[in-house]
């Protein structure tokens, strides 16, 4: 997403635009500084990466095989490359990053077709998957191989543990695999009171793109394989995909810090709580209309077009749907109650309300 006409010199310091915009968490920066001592082996053959791998297996299960990468796009696209062959297809929501925000990466690097499901929530269900399975074994048609779920969705809504389990069970009966884009997995788990393992490995999930940057990391993501045999060859795919870090320790310690002492949960809980507070405040403004349920750290609201630019002088956010004048407001681990009150006040002023 881009904001038209905005330059770095005119950008407001208060952000409700994206959880990518927040600074790295102090504990994460401290972990990086701590690891920046002396020489160690490169490309993941180091103590720090070994220690972070052990932490991930402690949290997600001993069978988990993790690979650290730079970007969520890398985790998503290379994960698809590991699970598919060129005659395969991936079933996902039309709004999923795989389809809408990876610049054709799955098609270019994995060489597969995307079969998309229109969805106002960003969620898909077993019935949606079934519609693509009529040509199983037919050599004239691509063969669906992977179902990709986004947790939480790009509309801020979450799948329950039961919903994910149902999809995984169905997919496995059809000899298919299930992938999760977990860029905002933490927010979904915090909202539902679920552990990371309960939401992923325990549901039968096969592969997870584990986020980090949207929840306080400087820039580190991971691809987690819950069936070790699916990870065969991924180290080569990661290298070909230009996601193999030489100084791997600096990626590894970020993820370790996030998973230590429930930092991931504290960060996500604050972001979710601030979104709920923001939504409650917007509901008190009669001329505004919230357009979607608020389950995690996203609030969608229709604001009159003439007021949007006025509010943007102090608070950065995106217009999600220009035609409807629907905006998307995203809270972060570092969003404060004063930030929320300030935005609500700026909105009232822009609407010329008392």
Strand arrangement across the biggest beta sheet: 2-8-7-6-5-3-4
CATH architecture classification of the largest domain? 3-Layer(aba) Sandwich
Helix share bin: 25-40%
The secondary structure category is alpha/beta
**What is the 3D form?**
globular
The H/E string reads EHHEHEHHEHEHEHHEEHHHEEHEEEH
CATH superfamily of the largest domain: Type I PLP-dependent aspartate aminotransferase-like (Major domain)
CATH class of the largest domain: Alpha Beta
Mean pLDDT: 95
- Give the beta-strand count: 13
How would you portray this structure in words?
The protein is of the alpha/beta class and 354 residues long. The chain folds into two domains: 14-23 and 264-350, Aspartate Aminotransferase, domain 1, CATH 3.90.1150; 26-261, Aspartate Aminotransferase, domain 2 (3-Layer(aba) Sandwich). The protein contains 14 helices and 13 strands. It has helices at 26-35, 47-60, 72-83, 97-100, 105-110, 126-130, 161-173, 185-192, 196-199, 234-240, 249-259, 263-283, 305-312, 337-350; strands at 14-15, 65-69, 88-93, 113-117, 143-150, 177-182, 207-210, 221-225, 289-290, 298-302, 315-316, 318-321, 326-330. It has a seven-stranded mixed sheet with strand order 2-8-7-6-5-3-4, sandwiched between helices. It has a four-stranded antiparallel sheet with strand order 9-10-13-12, with helices on one face. A two-stranded parallel ribbon has the order 1-11. The radius of gyration is 21 Å and the shape is globular. The protein starts with 13 loop residues before the first strand and ends with a helix. The relative contact order is 0.17.
